Each structure stands twice: as C-alpha cells, then as structure tokens.
Amino acid sequence: MKLLPKCLNSLIFLIFSIFMMQFSQAQNDISGKVVDDTGVPLSFANVLLLKTSDSTLIKGAITEETGLFLLKNIPRGKYTISASMVGFESISTEQFDFDGSSKMTIPTISLSQGVALDEVVVTSKKNLFVQKIDRMVINVASSILSAGSSALEILERSPGVLVDRQNSTISLVGKSGVLVMINGKQSYMPASSLVQMLEGMSANNVETIELITTPPANFDAEGNAGFINIVLKEQTDVGLNGAYSLLAGVGNGNTTSDNINFNYRKNRLNFFGNYSFLRNAQAQVFTFDRSFIDGDGIPVNISTVSDRDPIQRNHNIRTGLDYQTSDKTIIGLLLWANDNKWTMDAVNQSQETENDMPSSFVELLNTERNQLQHFGSNINIKHDFKKDGFVSFDLDYLRYKLENPTMYTNSFFDANNNFIREELTTSDKSTPINITVGKIDYSNRFSDKITLDMGLKGAFSNFDNDVAVGTFQDENFLEDPDLTDVSTLKERILAGYGSLEYTISDKTSVQLGLRYEHTNSDLVSEKQGKVVDRSFGELFPTVYFAQKVNDTLSFNLSYSRRITRPTFNDMAPFVIFIDPTTFFAGNPAVQPAISNSVKFDLNYRSTILSAQYSVEDGTISRYNSQFDEENERLIFGASNMDQTKTFSLTFGLPITITNWWKMQNNFTYLNTKVTNTVNGSLLALEQNTFNINSTQSFTIAKNLTSEINVNYNSPSIISFLGAAVLQEYYSINIGIQKKFGDRWGTLGLKVNDLLDSLKWTVLTNIPEQNLNTKNSVDFFNRTLILTYSRSFGNSKLKSARKRGTGAEEEKSRVN
Predict the structure, then answer these.
(1) Helices (H) and strands (E) in the chain, counts
(2) Residue 17 phi/psi, 5° resolution?
C-alpha cells in the first residue's frame, strides 16, 4: 500500500509541472460558407472534407442558418470539399493544401438550383479498413453484408478476431484478453452475456468497429489483447428521428433480430434510446471424444454426442438524456437493462470402451437455463474550459443477477446396453454482483504541439456465488462436496494515469503514457476459508511514435504493458456437465497475467502492413483441459500457463478491379509459442497460423449492390483453450441489397455460411498429462436471412453526443 501514494505523488508532480507551462494557442480548423446561386445562405447543407489521394472521408459538417460551417482539428494534407443539398446540384472544390497549423477559410461555395427530385443523396464511401496510430478502424457501413448482421457477426468477419460462442470468449490476434467498449467506454457486461448482447445488436446501428491492440494510458490496463470499440451511429438530434430494422432468418431452425433507436432534441435537452430483441432457435450437434490410460493400464475411450435444442432470447434497452447547462457544461444520465435468457434441452449419449471393447453406455438428458438480468446506470458531467480542454466525471452503479439451474437425468447401461439404473443430478448456481465505479479525466491541449491527459479511477466490486451440485438417490439428495460451495468476493482497484502527446514536427509525433493500478482481492469460501488474499500494484507504460513520410506513406511504432485479471467466473466455483465425467468448473487459485507488446504499422495509401510481438507471463487459459486421474474425470477450467509468445503479421490490400467491382483482402500470419509446467513436466507447443479474409463488392445497378465474403483459418493455438489446437475452418457469406431511399428504406437478402462448412474442431494431445481429446462444435448453420431497415424523422440536423460510461473494465470481468 505504501507504493501507491509514492508512485501517484511522482506522477502527479510530473503532470503538474507540465500543466504549469504556458504555450501559445494555435488553431487548425477549416471554415467556409455555402450559398445558393443568388447569394442567399443555405442552412442544413451537407459539407464533406475528402482526402484527395483516395477520396477518404475525413470529416463532415452541416451548415448553420447563416450558411457557415466549421471543420475542427484537421491535420495537414491535400483536400477537396464536397457540398450538397436536396434540390441543388452538388459541387466539389478544387484541391487545396492545408498546413494543419493555422485556421483556413475557403472561398464561398455556391450551389445551383437543380431539377426537383424527391431526394438527392451525396455519399462518400469510406475504405472498409483504415489503420490509425493505435487501432484499426472497420467502417461497417462500407460492407453490405453488415445489413441484417449482428455486431458479433461483423467481429467474426474482422481480421485477427476469433469468437468462441461455446465459451463466450473473443480473441484478437491469437490472444483472448479482449475487452469490449461501446462508444469509447468499456462495457462492464459479463463476458458470457456480452457475446449474447453483441449477437442481439444490429450492425445497422454500428458506425465503426475499432480494433485497439496497443491501448493508450487513459484506457484501463486490463486485457492482454487490447480493446474492441464499437461506435454506434450518431442519430440527428433536433426534433425526433431514428431508425428501425427487422430480420427474419431460417436455417436449422429460425431466428429474428429486431431493433429500434430514436433521438429527440429540443433546446438544451437531448433524449435518446434504443431497444433490441433477439430470438434464435437453431439446433446444434456437438461431439466430445477423449482417450486415456486408466489406473490399471487399460486404454479407455469415451465418445459423447450432444444433440442440442437451444433457444436464446435477449431483451436489451438503453436510454439516456443530456442537458446542456451552458455552452461549456453538459450533464448526462444513462440507464440500461438486459434480460438475456438461454435455455436448452439436450440429449447426450456417451459410449465408453476399454481395449476397443464396449464397457458401458450413458444417456444424459439435460435441461438447462442460463439467465442474466442486469441493470446499470451512469451519471456524467463534462465541462469544456477551453476549445481543446475538458474535465469529465463519471459515476457508475451496476447490478447483476446470474442464475444457472441445470438438471441431468442419467441412464446407465452395461456393455450389452442393458439398463442398470437411473440417476438424477442437479447443478444450481446463483450469483448476485454489485459494482460501483468512479472516474475523473482531464484533457488539455496547451498548443498545437502538446496535449496532456490525466485521470483517476476507483472500482469496487463484490459478489456472492452459491453453487450446489448433487445427486438424488431415491428421495435423498446427496451433495457433491467437491463441487458444492458458497463464495464471497470483494475487490478494489485504484488507478491513476498521465499521458503526454508531443508533435515534434508536421510529420513526427510521439505520445508517452504511464498508468498505475493497485488491486486488493479477497475471496472467502465457506468450506475452504480465505482462498484469495491479494494486494499488488503495477506500473503500465505506453509509448507511441508516428512518422509521416509523405502524403501517401506513414508508419507507427508502439509499446504497451498490460494486465489480464481473472474474471469473476474464473475464480468462483461453477459446474456444467457434458457427461458424468466431463464438465466445466471454476478455479479460485488462478492468478493475473502480465504482457508486454511491441507493434509496428506501415501505411501506404490504403494498403496496411502491421507487425506485433508480445510476451505474456502467467497466461490465463480459461478452458484448459485438466485430467483428474484419481476420479478419471476431465475438467475444463481456468488455470495459469507459464508463458505465451505471439508474433503476428497483418497485410491489408484493397483492390479496385473496375468501377463496379472492388475487393478488400486481409492476410494474417500468426506464430504462437506456449510453454507450461505440469507436475514437473515442461510442455512446449508452437503453431504457425494463416488467415485469409476477402470481401468482394459489386455494384449491379443504381442502388443495387452485392457482396461475397470468404474467410479461411489454418490450424491455430488459442490461449483461452490452453494447449489445444483449433483445426482449420472456412466459410462463405453472400448478400444482395437494394436501397429505395429514405422514404422506403433498404431491403437485403443474404446467406450466412453458404456451404455449411463453419465448424470448430479442437484437438488436445499431451501424453505426459494422459490427455488426448477431440471436440467438435457447430454453432453455425447455413441460414437464409431477409432484412428490412428504414430511418424516420429529421435526418439533416445536428448530431447527438456519443458517450458511454466510466465502468467498462469491470463489466467485462463479470462472466
């Protein structure tokens, strides 16, 4: 505890010293005016700033009543401006150079009266992938397959991203410590429910997805793989406006995903919200095979087939309001709630052989409910004390209730399939969780060269985890003492950070950051007493260097240090049976993992080359296979591995074949090395992985487009699966879309997993640990999906404020 004040004092002294410096203020804005051909100012005209080299949209604005517009914080470059308005002919200015260090006013833009049309829409399609200094940005609207897709499906088609629906885990470039943010604020939703929420979130509401593999110091230090930031679309905010979408799909069952969002603004008050509903009922078939040598030296094989009939039903609602007390101060309130319910009826048939001869057969009838109900609230106050300076305060309270009752009816048969007995096993888990988070951030741009950010945060969490597992024999319930327990966790995380960005020249900039986090965790078990008592502090530095060679070539170099803490579910007991001797469970002894990562990005026009190398000590494998030889049980649970080394190379290549055929190709190479010591034996595993993700876009006719996406992944090691190897898989998705204008909306038709080829097969072969398993899971079915979406209300007015909460890291640790 003494280390915390000492480090914070040093950090605050450094930041305060910089803060007291005085610098001259420079502006880097572009302004102008739009009028009609008689000189009358045009209000609500669209103004787009485009990069000349590749027509990339840099920023957009809408003119005021006086016809004036302002584009803020524009970097140096060569640009053109496109102006348009309904009933007028659009126009683009000549190319101009902007030095990025002073304010520039362009000549007045005059629009000529055009032929009266219902509506003229001027659009600038962004590149599907854009590399920035610390993140890759995926422009979701640039892919027509996003229409009718969920945010989770967009992630599954993103380069370097792997989504495991079975274990509710998201990985980025081979690392599973990924945290998800919404509108720049971390989502504190449990990992299992986060996957469900993303599946229920329509991509129609998503503007961009940002893959942030080396986060800056103002981000929480949690997560070895970094962050995925989902930026929701801004809805216009004067008057009432919004959008809705409907989806119906059929495959090996049926699915629907519907949502609506709205925004209403009047004077200083802005009220907004969205609601989404998901129901997915598609049958699944899983297989689990394992072999081992029993205590008598006899080879044993257990083969289980699980025929599942699941139903997933999610309700998600999010609403809030902002009140602008003055031109510089805004107060906001966010409220959100989720009711995510997953139920399943399954028939599991397990055949056991000894020396290749049948020895027994078990049929397990499984009825399960996994439900999470969540309420969250956030109060935010933001004050802009100058043009490029603000102070922001967030206070969050989150409440979760997780329930997972499961009933297993086990019928046992002998080697000749003669019935022996029937056994009823139950597993019940109840976990209420409370989280309170307070956060304050300060940002100030002292000059055109120096920007300072700093902040403090405190997160306080507690939960009670009650797990009961037992078997009914006649009318008597026999508790399993190894799997039944009540646990209580209390955790406190205090953090402080400082970040300094310095522009050395027009082409060179550097950013230095330092974050300190101190953690106290206490986990008490009724049966085992205090099983976790941790108090530790860590420093997390970050460094970014950006160099612009010319208008078409630039590169970035970065370093970051991260921590991956165990999720609440990793530490708390829980049990999910696959068969009587195979199940998932928690592990209170799992420790945090620390990683160091270096990343290099090279950008030439729209071509991206990115290389990253990371070393993680104490890697958390959330579903590592562990064989209990005494009871001959296979347990999938969290544990620490010695070390994981990961090298990744990503190459993004957009190609324009013709004006009607464009493609985006992404190639990823991954080298993963895992080492682990078990019972004195050192295990070393290495795997080279290749991923190819190609999207072909076709313009068939005006407002009629189609798209084909192909994804291939060779065998790979995924850290959350431990020493297991995920076998190769591939998929093809196709879609066609017709736009009828804002009045009539957009209609889309697509087929996911066209060849019904997307299936996961995971192999584990470790003779030293008596482990040899093969598990196949098939979440994906060939599914035909019809979508319809439409906007409503005023669509040509000022946009609503984007913000999230200050409690994002804690949400992701509720699992």
Answers:
(1) 5, 50
(2) -60, -45
Residue 245 forms beta bridges with which residues? 259, 789
What's the rounded Cα separation, in Å, for the pair 732 and 780?
12
Domain identity same for 251 and 103: no
**For 251, phi and psi rounded to 5 degrees?**
-150, -115
Residue 254, number of CB atoms within 10 A of its CB: 13
pLDDT digits (tens, 9 = 90+) for 537-575: 999 999 999 898 887 888 889 999 988 888 776 766 566
Residue 96 structural domain: 25-111
Domain-embedded: residue 185: no
Cα torsion 198, 199, 202, 203: sign: positive
Measured CA to CA, the distance from residue 329 to residue 759 in angstroms comes to 52
- 240: phi > 0 → left, psi -120 to 50 → alpha, else beta; which? beta
Total count of domains within the chain: 2
What residues contact 508, with CB distance under 8 A and at least 6 apart?
545, 546, 547, 548
pLDDT tens digits for 502-513? Answer: 999 888 999 999
Closest residue by Cα to residue 180 from 804, 621, 806, 809: 809
With contact defined as beta carbons under 8 Å apart, do 776 and 166 qualify?
no
CB count in 10 Å sphere of residue 320: 19
| Structure-block tokens of residue 734 | 């196709």
Q: Among 301, 264, 299, 307, which residue's Cα sits nearest to residue 282?
A: 307
Residue type, 611: A
CA distances, 798 to each of 40, 80, 121, 318 (Å): 21, 22, 17, 21
Give residue for tokens 């469970």: 585
Contact 376/336 with Cβ under 8 angstroms? yes
Residue 209 falls within a domain, yes or no? no
Tell me the per-residue pLDDT of 366-395, one tens digit each, with 9 for 90 and over. 899 989 898 999 999 999 998 788 999 999
Residues 797-808, mean pLDDT to the nearest whole number: 49
243 and 107 within one domain: no
HEC string of 81-112?
EEEECCCECCEECCCEEECCCCCEECCCEEEC
Structure tokens at 23: 């610098």
Question: Residue 345 pairs with which residues in a beta bridge?
Answer: 309, 367
Q: Which residue reads 């999230």 in tokens?
A: 804
Q: Does a structural domain hold residue 147?
A: no
Could you tell me the CATH number of the domain that includes residue 255?
Answer: 2.40.170.20
Distance in angstroms (rounded) separating the CA atoms of residues 629 and 292: 9
* Contacts for 421-424: CB closer than 8 Å, 24+ residues apart: 423/471, 423/472, 423/473, 424/471, 424/472
The two structure tokens encoding residue 471: 């078997």
Mean pLDDT of 129-140: 70
Domain termination site, one of 111, 135, 167 = 111
The structure's pTM equals 0.72
Distances (CA, A) of 489 to 49, 97, 428, 523, 568: 52, 59, 19, 4, 8
Structure tokens at 304: 């289980």
CA distance 492 to 106: 53
Give alpha helix (H) positions in 96-223.
Answer: 151-156, 191-200
In-domain check, residue 746: yes
Question: Domain ends where: 93, 111, 129?
Answer: 111
